[in-house]
Give the backbone structure.
Amino acid sequence: MIAEIRAALEGTTPDRAVREQLERFVALLLERNVAMNLSSARDPQAVGAHVRDSLAIAPYVRDPLVDIGSGGGFPAIVLAIASGVRATLIESTAKKARFLESVVAELGLPVVVRAQRAEEAARDPELRGSFASATARAVGSAPTVIELTIPFLAVGGLAVLQRGRLDERERQAAADAALVLGAEVEGEVPAPPGDERRVLLVRKLAPTGGRFPRRAGIPEKRPLCLEGGADG
């Protein structure tokens, strides 16, 4: 298995120490995924693809980082390994939060795990408005993810949001939702280059109103600016 993991991560980084840490992380994920169902990626090649996707956004991420819906550790664990960025991981599923805590302890990473919903964590004075960057993968529509990340950012901070394809309706809703939350969509880049997937870059320009994020579950059920989603 170790040989397969090394092959899957070949070329990800020239830094041997970082590569070895990434290999350890992948091995831990694959080992525990069997019993815990942490990720849909079940072999070294699939997990390696997630590692590469995570590394692709490293140029946009600044310290400190908050990651929403951290799941099996993508992208935040990979980013912490590769860049040393201090990260706070918000993960509401208890078994996934426990796994992340074990990885942090075993690898000695500068990471804190919070077993909370993002809607609740964003109202903690220690977390709200405290981060230079925010990431999130696979936690809902673009307006939903924007509502869940922007409140954590300090003014000037950047949400780095990995998305699939964006149609014009969702793209416009994301732009409108960003404005409601005191932010603006600064750009959209392929991830990786040549891929149909996108990284949405959303810059926070002003403090987010105290109403946001809305109650737990509402941002996902009624996304801002998408099908009348501003209620709640």
Q: What stands out?
A: Strands lie at 65-68, 87-90, 111-114, 131-137, 153-163, 183-190, 198-204. The mean pLDDT is 93.
